[in-house]
């Protein structure tokens, strides 16, 4: 019933742009913090972008490695979170995962994961 479906990944040259989308269903999207994680080849999964629930301000945070280049946004009417990726670098290569986290008491008590979408930045 619960689904997070990523799309928009692909092959892009250094300096290029991609926009990832994550379409959610089966839960109350507006009540969940949304995150994008990535896992580069040979490395652990890391959080790259975060956005709070809109009623708490919709604040965003980014990993230092992507700050100034990536933008996370959400559209609650469409149950969708986006990751706009600009000025892409080879080190941005990896599988990008959408994550939805329910944290009503200040810590995550329930979360969901998408299947991931591959982003490859290469000449």
SSE topology:
Blueprint: E1 3-7, E2 10-12, E3 18-25, E4 33-39, E5 46-51, E6 60-62, E7 70-75, E8 80-85, E9 94-102, E10 110-113, E11 117-121
Parallel strand pairs: 2-11
Antiparallel strand pairs: 1-3, 3-8, 4-5, 4-9, 5-6, 7-8, 9-10, 9-11
Description:
- The chain has strands spanning 3-7, 10-12, 18-25, 33-39, 46-51, 60-62, 70-75, 80-85, 94-102, 110-113, 117-121.
- With 123 residues, the chain is mainly β.
- Percent range for β-strand residues: over 45%
Q: What low-confidence regions span 5 or more consecutive residues with pLDDT below 50?
A: none
Give me the number of helical elements. 0
Form type: globular
What is the radius of gyration? Answer: 14 Å
Order of helices and strands: EEEEEEEEEEE
What characterizes the major β-sheet? 7 strands, mixed
